[in-house]
User: What shape does this take?
Amino acid sequence: MPFQYLDELAEGFLTTLSLTLLSAVGALVIGTVLAAMRVSPVPVLRAVGTTYVQLVRNTPLPVLAVLFALGLPVLGPSFGFFTWAVLALAVYTGAFVCEALRSGINAVGVGQGEAARAIGLGFGQTMRLVVLPQAFRTVVPPLGNVLIALTKNTAVAATISVADITLRSNALITSSADPLGVIGASALAYLVITLPLGLAVDRLEGRVAVVR
Amino acid sequence: MTQTRAPLVVLEGVVKRFGSHQVLTDVDLVVGAGEVVVVLGPSGSGKSTLIRTINRLETIDGGRIVVDGQPLPDEGRELARLRADIGMVFQSFNLFAHKSVLDNITLGPVKVRGASKAEARDRAMALLERVGLADKAGASPAQLSGGQQQRVAIARALAMQPKVMLFDEPTSALDPEFISEVLEVMKGLADDGMTMVVVTHEMGFARSAADRIVFLDQGRVLDDTVPGPFFDGTSSPRAREFLSKILAH
Ligand SMILES: Nc1ncnc2c1ncn2[C@@H]1O[C@H](COP(=O)(O)OP(=O)(O)OP(=O)(O)O)[C@@H](O)[C@H]1O
Ligand SMILES: [Mg+2]
Assistant: This one.
């Protein structure tokens, strides 16, 4: 029975939950900045944004995680594995947040940005006050998908020895000799995060829809 | 008369291309303070492009544009500051869809001019009063008719206390029954001495409100004259042809 293992996964669950929350915040910040760069009138910023997205999106997440946890410390910074996992997840997911936001920004009519500039708002103000608030509303569903994928992607932390749900279940599988039961419990633990997230996204989508 | 007015907007030899397609050719135009200039011309003649170059929503490929003595700066803070002094009213209204009518009007004064919220609100209400929409302050743009949206857009532009107002076919997206309420607001502005550049197909407005008519064809100014002579028999055959088509219905 899966339920008997839930207690033992509790600590891993909390770790996965904090991985998700922290990297989600990081990814939203990174993604927003990147999206603003990719639609900016400054060619250099656009190029940097595009290169970031192409590089990061096309690197497998486990490679990125190991690169961060084992590669970057060589260059100086030293963090715990948990922090490296958060950084890798935020950097990786930021690229997807950027692309979701960018599609939303493109969906906001050009007239909105023109009207904003016409009353004297600068590029930053136009984005912050007029374009992004509308873009966020159309991207709630795709952004929700990105965050749900992020929750599942946190499992990559196990590969760099962060004791999340996945790492704990792997240990439990060996000690309990009940792989199916443990996997079931592990799946339940992830669902406890992803299901409410999905529901929250649905509700939010209904609430923020812009009437046109 | 016109010659004695201080020039507020000056275009000299303005050239605009989209790729290899030259849309404006050596356009000269002087708009004096307090003057109302109506720009006429067939579809595709470059009217929108011309008016959009004045606040640099379109960049130009040649010539010079000076607004209130200042050449249009490159994109950046200084351009933003100059744009704040140039009101623009679009064919498709372009009210901020996520903001209430009141917030549409106060956004610029608060964020660009640094006005206090209360001050901006009072001015916005006065402007809504002026365009006859004081009761719609809390509404969202989608709840308004086209005519109401366009009047809010005019109020939004006026809230910046602009030196000149640009109108790009402000009534052509409107159902016929809403056209006159917008034209009346524009007429009131003209009577109050606002400097205006108006692209329109409303000949009644052009006749009664314009100080000058500029006729554009294939990106060239073919006629730049006072309304009377223009309507009574312009010397330009293209303009006569245009007029006969437009006045036919
Ligand atoms: N962003 C653009 N890219 C390429 N070509 C454009 C662009 N905007 C306008 N044009 C072209 O420039 C020419 C002039 O367009 P403009 O919109 O200024 O004409 P207009 O006189 O306002 O016409 P209308 O009465 O239909 O509004 C047209 O041939 C149009 O196709
Ligand atoms: Mg046009």
Summary: Residues 135 and 202 of chain B are 28 Å apart (CA to CA). Chain B has a mean pLDDT of 93. The domain at 1-85+165-249 of chain B is CATH 3.40.50.300 (Rossmann fold).
